[in-house]
Amino acid sequence: MTFLKKAASVAAVAALAATTALTASAETTKLRIQTHYAPETVSGKLAAQYIDDIQTMSGGGIEVEMFYSSSVVKSVETFDAAATGILDCDMTGGGYQTGKNSAFQFVGDIMGGYETPYQQLSWLYFGGGREAAAPLYNKYGMELIGWWVYGQESFASSKPIEKVADFKDWKFRSPPGMETKIFEKLGASPIVMDFTEIFTALETGIIDGADASGLANNVGLGLYDIVKYANFPGFHSMPSDHLACNKAVFDAMPEAHQTIMKVAMEALALRTALTFEKKNAEAAAQLREDGVTLSQWAPEELQKFRDAAQATWPEFADTPEAKALVDAHLSYLKQLGLVSE
Predict the structure, then answer these.
(1) Lowest CB count within 10 Å: 17, 36, 42, 247, which one?
(2) What pLDDT does 14 receive?
C-alpha cells in the first residue's frame, strides 16, 4: 500500500470513528427520577452523587430531572407514577408496594434477616436475588436497576426503647407491610404514614416514636431535636432502597446508558454502606454529647425480635413471587448461617 493510500485509509477510519462518536453522543436519555429523601440528608446527598455520576459518565448523554422529598407524588405513589409515565424512575424502595403484592416486602425489607448491608447486597448480586426479583418488577412494567442499602435503622422515641417489653402501647410511625404485623405481635401500636409526615407527627405528639431511617439520616431530619431516645446499633429494619425504572423507557435506552446506570448503582451501594458506617458512628457520638440516650439491645432481646420477625415471613409469602423470594432469601441465609436448617 502506498503512503497516499495508507493516509487515505487512516483518514477514512478516523472520519468513520468521528461519525460514530457523533451518532452515539446524539443519543440522549432524559429521565425524571423521584426519591423520598430530602436533599440535606446523607442519603439525599448520595442520591445526588449518583445522578452526577451517570450524567458525567455518559458525557451528558443521560440527563436527569431529579425530585427530592417526594415533591411530585407521595412516596408510596412513586412506583406507579414511574410505571404510568408521570415519572420515569422510582428511587424510593420496594417496601412501599406491599399493598400491590406482598412479594415487595422481600425486596424492600425482609426484617430480622441479614445483619449487614454487605450480606444483603451479596444476596441481590450473587445469591440469586436479582433473578428472583426481576419477574416481580417486570409484572408491573418496571425494571429493577439496583439497590443501595445504608444498614440497620434506629428508632427515634420520646421514651426509652431498650427491650421488647418497651414496645407495649408504643405508638410509632411505621412503613406499610410486614413491619406492622411484627410490632403488633410485640405489643406496639404502629401507625402507617408517609415518610414526609414524620417530623410533624412527632412534634405534635400524634406518635411517640418513629421508624424513619438510619441514625445519621434521622439526625438530618431533625428527629432528635424533638425526642431524646434512640437505639444504636440498630437491628429491626434494614431496607433496600431501590432504583427501578419504567421498563419500556429503560429498554429503549442505549445499551451503554443502561450499563452506566447499573454499574453506577453498584458504586452507590458500596458508597452508601461505607458512608453510613462512618456517619452513624459520628452521629451517635454527637447525640450522646447532646444528651440523647442511645440504647444497645442485649442478645436475648434481639433474638426475641428475630423470632417474631421470622415467624411472620410465611404470612407474607402468599403469592408465587413472594414465595420465590422468601425461598431465595432462606437458601442464602442458611449459607450465611443466619437461620437454622
Answers:
(1) 17
(2) 42
